[in-house]
């Protein structure tokens, strides 16, 4: 099967490529920077590369006419007043190019939303969904909360925050609930819904078995690493305090940590479980997800 992957340089994109190749699919990757892709991906010579900036329609190379499935994994964590408009333009240009092919299905990884008081990222992802629905191919939307795995932004932020700070003063909304999911399980869902007609023109929520607060996730990491950590919750503390701690302990740009901190205010737990009827899967627990990621880091350090 010929599969198009937009967002191939993203964390999810890079993790998905070997999964698709192992299943025997022919993978076509759309990237804006071939050099960056070659530097970051060990499977670069096993895929077909197309170049194009989705914000500039004229720069996009024509997609192969025989594309059967397309993944849209393009997300921006940049802080911009025009975030929603830019991401909508990117999705529109993608769909316009994809509509020139015989693609049967588009798969989009979005985020779980509580439906009210949404962050800018949640609003933008909903807008992207609406744009993608206008395409000719059937749309399948998978909505996830925090994705835990070696290299994921969420895991790296939890790891750096916990490893570097013994005492944290945080706002009360770090007690908002979240349903984290292991990267392994996200990849299983992404691959399993391919050309499954039961998933056409539908959206699904995906998550692991645990419902935890961000505070519990930090303490869960600390327990595995046998670190004594103290979190002091002050209900009316300005939200910028958590952004400050995140930016001080992580290599990510402030905009990334600020947007993550903002999204933590929202409760992101599954309210529907229909995916389980279509793709039965025993998802990893949060602790199991952490252990896999930590063991991977330790193995890399010992090489």
Description:
With 303 residues, the protein is α/β, with parallel strands linked by helices. The chain has helices spanning 11-22, 34-40, 83-98, 120-132, 153-164, 183-192, 214-224, 240-249, 254-263, 275-278, 286-301, and strands at 2-6, 26-31, 48-51, 69-72, 105-111, 138-144, 147-148, 167-171, 177-178, 181-182, 202-206, 212-213, 230-234. A seven-stranded parallel beta sheet has the order 3-2-1-4-5-6-11, sandwiched between helices. Strands 7-10 form a two-stranded parallel ribbon. A two-stranded parallel sheet has the order 8-13. The radius of gyration is 19 Å and the shape is globular.
Protein structure class: alpha/beta
Low-confidence stretches: none
Enumerate how many helices there are, as a single number: 11
Strand content: 15-25%
The main sheet comes to:
7 strands, parallel
Which features characterize this protein?
seven-stranded parallel beta sheet, alpha/beta, 11 helices, two-stranded parallel ribbon, 18% strand, 303 residues, 13 strands, single chain, 40% helix
List the helices and strands and how they pair.
Elements: E1 2-6, H1 11-22, E2 26-31, H2 34-40, E3 48-51, E4 69-72, H3 83-98, E5 105-111, H4 120-132, E6 138-144, E7 147-148, H5 153-164, E8 167-171, E9 177-178, E10 181-182, H6 183-192, E11 202-206, E12 212-213, H7 214-224, E13 230-234, H8 240-249, H9 254-263, H10 275-278, H11 286-301
Parallel strand pairs: 1-2, 1-4, 2-3, 4-5, 5-6, 6-11, 7-10, 8-13
Antiparallel strand pairs: 9-12
Helix pairs in contact: 1-6, 3-4, 5-7, 7-11, 8-9
